[in-house]
UniProtKB/TrEMBL annotation:
It holds the Pfam family FMN_dh. FMN binds at residues 122-124, 151, 172, 200, 264, 286, 319-323, 342-343. Its cofactor is FMN. One of its GO terms (molecular function) is oxidoreductase activity, acting on CH-OH group of donors. Glyoxylate binds at residues 69, 174, 209, 288, 291. This is Alpha-hydroxy-acid oxidizing protein. Gene3D superfamilies: Aldolase class I. CDD domains: alpha_hydroxyacid_oxid_FMN. The active site is at 288 (proton acceptor). Keywords: Flavoprotein, FMN, Oxidoreductase. Residues 43-391 form the FMN hydroxy acid dehydrogenase domain. Belongs to the FMN-dependent alpha-hydroxy acid dehydrogenase family.
């Protein structure tokens, strides 16, 4: 497996793909000097009309193993598809003659104001998609003012990412089978400044990733693509996922860190009730982008019963299948306080590194703003369930 992409190659393929290779000679701004050092010409950026254009380019420049790992799901990827398709069944009810000359996308979460409700989901092994990995993603998130969640299985460690990007990060935790090791992971995250711990609860074991085959296992044991957070602490025989995990972990986390605790992977009303009982600070409605248990409902179908149960007591976030501003609008209307995106920013990363992540974020934010204008909702609080039908 050759996980590393050559920036120069990526850039050349990009220019070929948009049919601009000839212009490289005419415009120094799009010289073939490598995408890390050069800025893209504005005209080039406009070639990316939506996140699917970035997906198209990422498929041209990333290796097959990386594409399969990124885009694949469990079994036949039915839940991967369901996440996307379910948004299409919901329609928007727009209101007219409302002043939408100024739009605010600000949201408040855990006592802090965020510029947009669009958050970057934790995605592991980002060096597999681009050599700059999570550092590129973090730099883009800082520049574009989006919150990033760093995966436990990131290639750069959480402190390297924080130091190189100056980002205020949230940390996603996979508790290991050894609590001493897990404790050290938490200490590292807190030292890197993380104030929120996103505990993923849908991975007692790894799903059946047929499309990616053995790639994930190879990544976990790869010598080139190390899992930065575990350097020097992962002891022989420690599992990076724990099939014995129960609700007891919440009180253990409370006793062992000061971060807010957000559960990622809740898909039922029953577990939303338990999350409240155990006193977590927030939940993310997620099916892991369809990568864990096949045949789960789409996340947007799970959202109504969970919102109904939580009744605004803690923030409810959602991820899975969000590809358009209208998807974000629909999730917010049904009651999510914010949304997270996974594959779309990775397509940008794989295609163009930091610049590609920035483009993905720009596209989704611009779409959301335009959709808010067209629907007659000048701020996020105005997007209520009266604006959607068919869920
Ligand atoms: C390549 C890849 C790696 C992922 N790694 C993690 C991870 O390390 N931790 C985690 O909680 N979720 C992980 N996820 C799941 C995402 O956080 C998120 O739930 C999912 O990607 C959202 O769906 P979307 O890709 O359709 O936006 C990963 C997803 C992908 C595609
Ligand atoms: C142990 C899981 C590793 C990364 C992950 O969550 C994914 O590939 O979906």
């Amino acid at each position: 497996m050759d996980p590393f992409q050559n920036s120069d190659l990526q850039r050349r393929k990009f220019l070929e793909w948009i049919g601009l290779s000839g212009l490289a000679l005419a415009f120094p701004a799009i010289s073939l000097s490598g995408c890390q050092s050069s800025r893209f010409h504005e005209d080039e950026k406009q070639e990316f009309k939506n996140v699917f254009d970035l997906e198209g380019l990422s498929e041209k420049v990333m290796g097959k193993d990386a594409i399969d790992y990124l885009n694949g799901g469990a079994d036949d990827s039915k839940t991967v598809k369901a996440n996307v398709v379910a948004y299409q069944k919901i329609q928007i009810r727009a209101r007219r003659l409302i002043d939408v000359s100024t739009i605010s996308t600000k949201v408040e979460l855990f006592g802090q104001t965020y510029e947009t409700p669009i958050i970057l989901s934790p995605v592991g092994f980002q060096k597999f998609f681009h050599q700059d990995g999570e550092v590129a993603t973090a730099k883009a998130s800082v520049k574009k003012q989006h919150q990033m969640i760093v995966s436990s299985v990131s290639n750069y460690s959480v402190n390297e990412i924080a130091a190189q990007s100056q980002a205020d990060l949230w940390f996603q935790l996979y508790p290991t089978t050894n609590r001493e090791v897990t404790k050290k992971l938490l200490e590292r995250a807190e030292k890197a400044g993380c104030k929120v711990c996103v505990l993923t609860v849908d991975t007692p074991v790894i799903g059946n990733r047929e499309r990616g085959g053995t790639t994930l296992t190879k990544l976990i044991y790869s010598k080139e693509l190390k899992m930065g957070n575990y350097e020097g602490i992962l002891t022989e025989g420690t599992g990076i996922d724990d099939p014995g995990l129960t609700w007891e972990i919440i009180s253990w986390l409370r006793a062992n860190c000061d971060m807010k605790i957000v559960l990622k992977g809740i898909v039922t009303r029953e577990d939303a009730t338990l999350a409240l009982e155990y006193g977590v600070d927030g939940i993310i409605v997620s099916n892991h982008g369809g990568r864990q248990l096949e045949s789960l409902r789409s996340t947007i179908e799970c959202l109504p019963e969970i919102v109904e149960e939580i009744k605004g007591r803690i923030p409810v976030l959602i991820d899975g299948g969000i590809r358009r501003g209208t998807d974000i609008f629909k999730a917010l209307a049904i009651g999510a306080n914010a949304v997270c995106i996974g594959r779309p920013f990775c397509w940008g990363l794989g295609a163009l590194g930091q610049e590609g992540v920035e483009i993905a974020l720009d596209i989704l934010k611009a779409e959301l703003i335009r959709d808010m204008q067209l629907a007659g909702t000048p701020s996020i609080e105005k997007i209520t369930c009266d604006f959607v039908i068919g869920f």
